[in-house]
Specification:
3 helices, two-stranded antiparallel sheet, mainly alpha, single chain
């Protein structure tokens, strides 16, 4: 049975974990080195953040812990 309000065959969109305006500002740079940021850049970065979160959860579980530590993300 399908959930109410879900279209058949549509992929679930992930919530945005990065703050768009702040991330674009950081990516653009300043001064002599300024860059344009395409709209799909934020989507790609968001997907990478989701991947990092997934990897940290797996690493934490593999070590028998329930608390994610900074080294779970940075490893």
């Amino acid at each position: 049975m399908m959930a109410k309000g879900k279209a058949k065959g549509k992929a679930k969109t992930k919530d945005m974990l990065v703050v768009g305006s702040k991330t674009k500002e950081a990516l653009k740079g300043s001064g002599k080195n300024t860059f344009n940021v395409s709209s799909d850049t934020l989507i790609a970065l968001n997907e990478h953040v989701y991947w990092l979160v997934d990897q940290a959860q797996k690493r934490c579980a593999a070590n028998g812990r329930k608390t994610i530590r900074p080294y779970d993300i940075l490893a």
